[in-house]
Amino acid sequence: MRLFSKKxxxxxxxxxxxxxxxxxxxxxxxxxxxxxxxxxMDLTAYTDNSDVLNDAEKKINExxxxxxxxxxxxxxxxxxxxxETKLTDETAYxxxxxxxxxxxxxxxxxxxxxxxxxxxxxxxxxxxxxTDDEIKNALKTVDYSKVSIKDNVISKPKExxxxxGGIAKGxxxxxxxKLLKDEGVTSAIISLGGNVQTLGxxxxxxxxxVAIQDPFDQNKYVGGVKVSDKAVITSxxxxxxxxxxxVTYEHIVDPKTGKPATSGLSSVTIxxxxxxxxxxxxxxxxxxxLDKATEYWRENQDFQAVFITTxxxxxxxxxxxxxxxxxxxxxxxxx
Length: 335
Known about the structure:
Helices cover 28% and strands 30% of the residues.
């Protein structure tokens, strides 16, 4: 069996696109690399506050601690060992948002998928191809609709396991950007695994350029988007997978089948104002496939998307026609 677990950073187009600092006043480029939520996070801010990224790192670690399913000190651990749990405002907001995405996507995003992910070994890297009976048994407790929240109290069947890993980085990027903004930062870019989020423009006034990984060649990009004040979040099966007996098993699992999604998509990139929503949607639309994802976009045009199919075709929603750039052929999805 060949095992692959890759924490892919949605790469930034660097070099001339990211300045090494500003020559005027005390504004300087501040950079910090953080390891949290099982991925590498790169933070870059242009500011005269040398402590601001230390504050951001502290907040990231606080969120990670509260949402880590395996930690007995976390809120999520308490949730998973009780039928009712009083949550902090922060965790309650994350849960409510996740449940809303689950409802809007008819369960394509499901925060109760953990038993199935555990079965396949995608969480602990002990990869395994389960039998159909094992999958069927694991699916018995998978159903986001059995989870409810009111007045910050989450209720669920005791056997139901909640995991916010599919949306946590999106929430974290939102939180870090807000923290930087509150500290007076007007120009920043952060990369949290496959999640990139920007604050304002580059220091020279130009838009940030965020590249989109080629899912078939991780040394190349298919193109990118020019953005300001946006989250750019990619989900792709190539980010974590294993191969057994010549068959590739990717980590994005369809909650309905309990098996790796075979939707015809290789990656989905969401461009949106809120990282938390982009995080959940990138996974959900990957599971749904191009046709259903396109239909969903037409009904909910509060985000834009780039879809790459398993045969290498690129589809870009109409709202990105002026900001998407590529030297490859692509099709525009119209409203």
